[in-house]
Amino acid sequence: MSRTKNLSVDEMYGDWQATKEHPQSEYERSLNPRSSSSLFDTVASLGLTNTARVLDIGARDARYSITLHQLLGCKVVAVEPVVQNVEEARRLVKESGLVDWIEVRQGSIQQVPAEDGSFDLVFCRDVLSHVADLRAALQDSCRVLAMDGRMVVYQTFGTDQLEPGETTRICADLAVEPSSLDRDHFEREAKNCGFAIEAVDVIGSEWREAWEEDGTHRTSIQLLHAARLIRAEPQLRLAMGEVPYRVELANAMWGIYQMIGKLEPRIYTLRRASDGKTVLAQ
Q: Does 181 score more than 90 pLDDT?
């Protein structure tokens, strides 16, 4: 967000008022944002077939595993560390009639329960923000990929608009590793762990703009929730409990920060280098 000089009162009211006389201000027109399905468009663009071997790492309730199967027609292994999520994932897979297609395993991205070279694609959405040892996570993801296999990573990074105090609060309340917000750190570690960066898709505020325009209003709702949580903090902390209160407020702010450019989601397509070598920075 560029700022060159302080505006005078005449400039502020004169030039600003002139723009409001137009039938429709430029910023009121849609920029045709892509929806969150663009993440799966990235997967579809890789040209995988129904014989592909796919890993959904940090799968939570396996809903994305189901989408991956529906998209590619292949078998998917869903790996999730949290016991409650594993149980919910198995329930959802069973209810979906996809037990023969989706296998749910308990495990972490630092120690994937799979053999070397087991997969053609590793799908990783909103996982690395919570990982303390990024290098271990990327090394093991690279290990379980076949040569020239891909890893699609959806990750949110901080921008220069994010203030240090905001970083501290949101990381503390969402169990986010502060270093995970550093885009340069991620790219450097990916290369160090045997990946080539094949493509980078900057999402920014697009998904959130799309949710506002399609009537979902996800970020507007989060803004309203944040206002209530802040204004009625003593009562709501007591009624909800300390941890739920902190998480709900931080999650709302996470969405707002994405919308206003303090946080920047990106999709990375990483390819395991054909020689399979890992070159670690000294």
A: yes
- Which residue is listed with tokens 């240090």? 164
Count CB neighbours of 59 within 10 A.
29
Do 38 and 269 contact (CB within 8 A), yes or no? no
Could you give phi then psi for residue 263, rounded to 5 degrees?
Answer: -120, 145
- Rounded CA separation 61/92 (Å): 7
Rg (CA), the chain: 21
pLDDT tens, residue by residue, 12-35: 777 777 766 665 677 888 999 999
Residue identified by tokens 């694609």 is 121
Domains of the chain plus CATH, in order, are 33-161+173-205+263-272 (3.40.50.150)
Quote the Cα angle for 186-192-131, to 5°.
40
- Supply the DSSP symbol for 6: P
What's the CA angle centered on 63, arms 193 and 218, to 5 degrees?
A: 95
